[in-house]
Design a protein that fits this description.
The chain has 5 helices and no strands. With about 110 residues, the chain is mainly α. It has one domain. It starts with a helix and ends with a helix.
Length: about 110
């Protein structure tokens, strides 16, 4: 119980000093839809990763796939488009395997 009181006191002191005034999203309503869409079993882990600005491997792969699709469509020459297509194929396969592992865990 003492730890709770100490933590509460430290938070109040920081608030009094204005240390929380310039946080991103300050004064905005909290959007909890995404939080509750996340499966309960992994909700806390994803929240911690998001707060640390870390994203799951699947999200990184999705971003890379999108960028590679743009590279294929807008490549300067055939060689660069061919390289992008090969990398895109590999990343799509990696993404599918990663998503399949997630599905298997959820079961």
């Amino acid at each position: 119980m003492a730890f709770d009181r100490i933590a509460e006191q430290k938070i109040r002191e920081a608030m009094a000093r204005g240390e929380f005034d310039d946080l991103p999203g300050a004064g905005q309503p909290i959007d909890l839809e995404e939080y509750f869409r996340t499966p309960e079993a992994i909700r806390m882990a994803y929240s911690i990763l998001k707060s640390a600005r870390c994203v799951p491997e699947e999200i990184e792969l999705m971003k890379e796939v999108r960028a590679l699709e743009e590279a294929v469509a807008g490549g300067r020459d055939e060689e660069s488009r061919a390289r992008a297509r090969r990398r895109l194929r590999d990343r799509r396969l990696q993404l599918e395997m990663s998503l399949e592992r997630l599905r298997a865990r959820r079961g």
